[in-house]
User: What shape does this take?
Amino acid sequence: MSERITREQAWKLLNDNVKGENYITHSMAVEAIMRGLAKRLAPDDVEYWGICGLLHDLDEETCPWREDLSTHGPTSARMLKDAGFDDEVMANAIMAHNPVCGKSPETTLEYAMIAADPMSGFIKAVAQIYPDKKLASVKKKSVTKRFKESRFAAGANRQYMMEIEKTGISFDEFVDISLAEMLEIADQIGL
Ligand SMILES: [Fe+2]
Assistant: This one.
């Protein structure tokens, strides 16, 4: 395996390839949640799990996912490799957040990835229903309540979010961790 990508290198790679501000803030939110999950599940790999989250949508503006969703994930893996980072664990974690590409989650890291992605968007959607649209206003109770309303933020895949339970973390804890971690960077992600 080539050397591991650093946070700084990952940040540059992301910004070189993704220009949409919403994609960048989404990537940062998923990074934050992944770091929070790693603190519980893989304390020696907090930075690494965060980088997996940060890069999970690296190919967002490169691959033709609107026409062919199966290209989303494998394209990021190839981009990572082309940049000189031949990291199978990271490539698999990135691909596993989109099982449509043929890679299903099988490891703790991969279950965390597939769950963290929709959770970040879901929490953002909950924040946006408050008058101040601030993450600081969001209570866990409103997240769990809205989760049960299938029409609310319908794009946030509930089944994927529930995959977190395969890591041993309950859905309830997952909400706590995600809220706390996103709140830490609320200013940076416009929430
Ligand atoms: Fe994503």
User: Anything to note?
Assistant: Residues 21-41 form the longest helix (21 residues). The pocket of fe (ii) ion is lined by residues 26, 30, 56-57, 117 (CB under 6 Å). Residues 7-184 form a domain with the Hypothetical protein af1432 fold (CATH 1.10.3210).
